[in-house]
Design goal:
The complex is a heterodimer of chains A (about 260) and B (about 450). Chain A has helices at about 1-15, 15-20, 30-40, 55-60, 60-80, 90-100, 105-130, 140-160, 165-180, 210-215, 220-255, and strands at about 50, 195-200, 200. Chain A is mainly alpha-helical and about 260 residues long. The longest helix of chain A is centred in the C-terminal third of the chain and has 32 residues, at about 220-255. Chain B folds into three domains: about 1-80, no CATH class; about 90-195 and about 245-260 and about 285-345, no CATH class; about 350-455, no CATH class. Classes of the chains: A mainly alpha (about 260), B mainly alpha (about 450). Bound molecules: protoporphyrin IX containing FE.
Chain lengths: ~260, ~450
């Protein structure tokens, strides 16, 4: 035992360790404060917090779990990207291979169930924020940021749904995106699109309306797969990550987790 | 006997259900232990001899019963043809004959919601919560003995929805449990519970460790789920083979359900935008300063009821309807009913303008002649649809003023003009779905305003 302890001490006294962690281990009060201030990952948090703000029965931990699921989805998603090619030729076969051949193909399961879970936890987080009245001043704006995050979460899930390129995927996306052609003025089956015409030519047709913009095509095809792949793997995650950063920043700036005044 | 193509019970189902009973057994064993420790007693009605018995006795009896059922499953699975524990046919028939009908289903959701608010005192006690949890799990377990139920609930993508129902139920219960306590305290002139014991603690270790444990638990849970349940992969995509029914991803099924009542431009574009915009507007229209930072119902009855109505019956309830009850041709099926592609439902819905001109005035509908000029065609259409247009405009323009002058006088006064207009229109939009449902069920009403020429149907 004694020698083990001294090995630990040796490591913690080494120049390498000290260069990574800029303070002694958080055993005493002073260093527990210092660790929160000097560690990049922990500096999201304040140093001390009201007890109520960390009570599970108050926050349900749902915002935190949502964030963790976002991270887990990012990691498993990047791993999946090593295997998956978003083309008509390969998309389905690559998923099939993930199921039947690839070691750690279970990443696909984790990614899919994690996505379902994230949709549910983000709803529950919103439910709790509403029920504790935490959207009231001074947190109005963070609620607005949250609603956008909710939408991004749903869009992430929706765009990812297409990628396996099986029957479930294309028809769900077909049903979902068919709505876009009914967009008022901007969809070719939407009310009022007839008014957007120049010299008798309709500006809005099935090859130029809102649905076409979304799908890159008149129906769910290869262009759609490409578009959804980029939305799913790059565009929406970046937007969500940026907004999450703002969200967390605002939680702190708005005075931490809400509590009775 | 001929071979049953859909055997209700197979060996593996019986064995699998044994595990579910095991979970219930463990859960209730712990609960029995808990109430034994607490030593609570319960008064027996005079009729049964009066006196007091420990509450733990009842739970102990239920636990013992569960253990016997569990053993029956684990030992009797080799002869499914003689296995007895399953749902009686009359029960399935009874449930299906109600649930396979949108008006009964929706009525049930709204009724249950109302009862929940009304009886929140009783329902949010621990005993009631435990009874409801037991009831829910038992219902699920017994229902799983049915072949059709298993087909739909057992779809891998539907499993999370079942879990969500329990989770949402639990948190709703928790909310009422905590707000009842706070409401009592507030009535007694005390601060809410969240204001007490609210000392500052260091984030390291108190919060950091909670987070670590949470992260490990979620990771373990995801791995378990991933290994236990394979992600779905159907046939390769084919643009010519349309599945029946074609469903959007499950979290959008509430929106897809709206398509039954409203055209895509409303159900798929306008209403979703209004929902998102309306949610963003919430902090700016709720002027009630109380209930910030603690659980309470009494201090914000209206806000909580409206939000919950939107979330529980309208959002979650419609997702359940869309996922579990909508089958081929978007017909409604009972949870124990076979998804028959040939099931017929008579659909002869009538537009308001038809009611008005054909049945009300007994004249022909105003119809433009093919030689008419554009302006005249438009005029004829407007005339034809004038009853619906007037009703809709009246709903969106006159109703807010009526609300402001009658039962929402206080709100209008305190909110100011713009805020009240936004608020009342949001409420009216939210009510538009149930109203259209009622009109459909009561009068087979198809469209209030029907201008198919311009894809403008309401
Ligand atoms: C990707 C989605 C989201 C993530 C990762 C996230 C994360 C978090 C976290 C970690 C907190 C700290 C407290 C807690 O855990 O409850 C928080 C607070 C908060 N969130 Fe979110 N959130 C998300 C979406 C939303 C949504 C959809 C809403 C509302 C519509 C929302 C509104 C708020 C508000 C108002 C607070 C402050 C709560 C308080 O002070 O009590 N967030 N969020």
């Amino acid at each position: 035992m004694g020698s083990l302890m001294s090995v630990g001490d040796y490591i913690r006294e080494s120049q390498i360790w000290k260069s990574v962690f800029r303070h002694p281990a958080p055993y005493d009060r002073r260093n527990r404060v210092v660790v929160m201030l000097t560690n990049f990952f922990l500096h999201l948090h304040p140093v001390s917090i009201k007890q109520n703000g960390i009570a599970l029965s108050y926050t349900w931990c749902m915002g935190g779990i949502t964030f963790f699921l976002f991270l887990a989805e990012t990691i498993t998603g990047v791993l999946l990207m090593f295997y998956y090619r978003p083309t008509l030729e390969w998309a389905f076969n690559d998923i099939l291979a993930l199921r039947d051949v690839t070691t750690l193909g279970v990443m696909r399961e984790i990614h899919r169930w994690g996505a379902h879970a994230m949709v549910i936890t983000v709803w529950l987080h919103m439910y709790r924020v509403f029920l504790t009245g935490s959207y009231k001043p001074p947190r109005e704006f963070n609620w607005v940021v949250g609603v956008i995050l909710l939408k991004l979460t749903l869009l992430l899930s929706f765009t990812g749904y297409l990628l396996p390129w099986d029957q479930l995927a294309i028809w769900a996306i077909t049903v979902g995106s068919n709505m876009a052609r009914a967009t008022p003025f901007l969809g070719h089956e939407g009310p009022g699109f007839q008014f957007l015409n120049v010299g008798g030519y309709d500006l809005i047709t099935n090859a130029s309306d809102a649905r076409f913009l979304l799908l890159g095509s008149k129906f769910v095809g290869e262009e759609t797969l490409n578009r959804f792949y980029i939305l799913h793997c790059v565009a929406i995650p970046l937007a969500a990550a940026g907004l999450i950063a703002i969200h967390f920043w605002r939680v702190r700036k708005d005075g931490g987790i809400s509590q009775p005044l | 006997m001929s071979l049953d193509p859909h055997p209700n019970l197979t060996s593996s189902v019986i064995f699998g259900l044994g595990w579910l009973y095991l979970i219930q057994f463990v859960m209730n064993f712990a609960w029995t232990w808990r109430s034994l420790k607490k030593g609570t007693h319960h008064r027996v009605p005079k009729f049964f001899g009066g006196g007091e018995v420990p509450v733990a006795m009842w739970w102990g009896m239920y636990t013992a019963l569960l253990s016997m059922v569990m053993i029956a499953h684990f030992t009797g699975f080799s002869s499914p043809e003689r296995f007895l524990i399953q749902l009686p046919g009359w029960f399935k028939f009874f449930v299906d004959s109600f649930i396979a009908d949108a008006k009964w289903y929706f009525g049930f959701c709204v009724g249950a919601f109302g009862l929940m608010i009304w009886f929140r005192r009783v329902l949010a006690t621990e005993t009631a919560g435990w009874l409801m949890l037991n009831g829910g799990v038992l219902f699920l377990t017994l229902s799983l003995t049915d072949w059709d139920f298993r087909q739909i609930v057992g779809k891998p993508d539907n499993v999370p929805i079942v879990a969500m129902l329990f989770i949402v139920g639990y948190f709703t219960w928790l909310y009422f449990n905590r707000s009842n306590e706070n409401d009592d305290r507030i009535e007694a002139g005390l601060p809410p519970k969240e204001a007490e014991d609210n000392e500052k603690v260091l984030v390291w270790p108190d919060l950091v460790y909670t987070e670590l444990i949470c992260m490990i638990a979620v990771t373990a849970f995801l791995f378990f789920w991933g290994v236990a349940l394979q992600a779905p992969l159907e046939e390769p995509a084919s643009a010519v083979k349309t599945p029946n029914p074609s469903k959007a991803p499950w979290y959008f099924l509430g929106l897809q359900e709206m398509l039954v009542y409203y055209d895509p431009w409303l159900a798929g574009v306008v209403f979703p935008s209004v929902i998102l915009g309306g949610m963003m507007a919430i902090p700016y229209i709720d002027f009630n300063k109380r209930g910030n930072g603690y659980y309470t119902f009494n201090e914000r009855k209206f806000a909580v009821s409206v939000f919950m109505f939107g979330f529980l019956p309208l959002w979650v309830g419609m997702i359940v309807l869309g996922t579990f009850l909508r089958g081929p041709n978007w017909n409604i099926f009972g949870i124990y009913e076979y998804w028959d592609v040939h099931k017929l439902e008579a659909l002869n819905n009538v537009n308001l303008s038809e009611y008005f001109w054909l049945y009300g005035l007994n004249t022909a509908m105003p119809t433009p002649a093919s030689t008419d000029s554009g302006m005249r065609i438009l005029g004829m259409i407007l005339l034809r649809e004038s009853p619906g247009i007037l009703l809709t405009l009246g709903y969106l323009i006159a109703m807010p003023s009526i609300m402001a002058m009658t039962f929402l006088k206080q709100y209008a006064f305190r909110m100011g003009f713009i805020r009240f207009m936004v608020f009342s229109n949001l409420i009216l939009m939210m009510a538009a779905l149930p109203i259209k449902m009622l009109l459909r069920w009561a009068f087979n009403l198809k469209y209030l305003v029907a201008v198919p020429e311009y894809f403008f149907n309401i």
